[in-house]
Amino acid sequence: MSSDEDRFAQVIGALNAGLAVLPEFHQLLEERRRQGEMSTQEILGRAGARFDENQLALLEDLARLMGDGTTGR
Amino acid sequence: MRTLPCKMTTMLALACVIFFNTALAGDCDGKAAKVSPEQPSAVRTLAKASDDLAGGIKLTISTKRQLARERLLDRDEELLLTNLMLDVNRTGKEYNRVLTSVERDTSQNRAALRNALDEVTKSIGRLNDEGVLHIKSEVARQRAGLAINGIRAAIAVIGNTLTSTPLPTPTPAPGPLPTPNGGKDAASFRRGGLRHVI
Question: In chain A, what residues touch B63 (CB-CB under 8 Å)?
């Protein structure tokens, strides 16, 4: 491939990567908009709950990978 | 034509930076900013960034799972990323715990928060250097890299707030109004009374 084709492939790859995570980013933005209606203590409480959920999700993944070794979920 | 893809790459990178900064940085709450039950403060900004940090980790977890489903990550890569993400989440959780225990904005509390933030920064560095950069699939590497940018944006907000936002000054007791003909009260007014009025 020429260098132009290389660069074009990189751009398409980056665009594709951006599009693939777009729905998740949209959800992230929605959750952030809700912060405006919450008190500081409520925001901190929600953050704590989300960290707990993340930990649980990662431990589930770890158990799955250490167990049957299947990837994805 | 030869330089077009290069320009496009630059523009895409700029667009990503602008997106992350406007989406996650500062106090921009978009349409929901109409009702804010509290005045903005450093602690509130830090709390929002902590929530964003947790959201960014959640996004990274779902991206990792999606990549594994698409067979763009093998078992060993997913296992390594999972362990590194657990570490990022642990340090983020500790930062949130320290922030929750802060009752007043003091230099001592800021130092404790900076220490906790340092740990988050180190763990995200390890996730990138030891995990994401070693993913064999280029597509997966790009997508995982984009996902952790959300975490990095939240960390940047916390770092900036801790260093640049001034500590609130105590409100002084109301003093006598300045007299129009100068004298001691007027001098006191010039020394800084106006700041309190504003």
Answer: 21, 24
Whole-model pTM over 0.80: no
pLDDT at position B15 is: 55
- Cross-chain residue pair B24–A32, CB shorter than 8 Å: yes
Cβ-based burial of B91 (10 A; exposed 0-12, middle 13-18, buried ≥19): buried
What ipTM was reported for this prediction? 0.71
Buried b (16+ CB within 10 A) or exposed e, B36-75: beeeeebbbbbbbbbbbbbbbbbbbbbbbbbbbeeebbee
The residues of chain A scoring below 50 in pLDDT are none
Rounded Cα gap, residues B100 and A42, in angstroms? 11
Return the number of CB contacts < 8 Å for A and B.
Answer: 177
For the stretch B91-149, pLDDT in tens is: 999 999 999 998 777 888 889 999 999 999 999 999 999 999 999 999 999 989 988 98
Please tell me chain A's helix, strand, coil percentages from 3-state DSSP, rounded to the nearest 5: 85, 0, 15
Taking an 8 Å cut-off on Cβ atoms, the answer to whether B146 and A46 are in contact is no
Single-letter amino acid code for the residue at B114: R
∠ Cα B83 B49 B124 (to 5°): 25
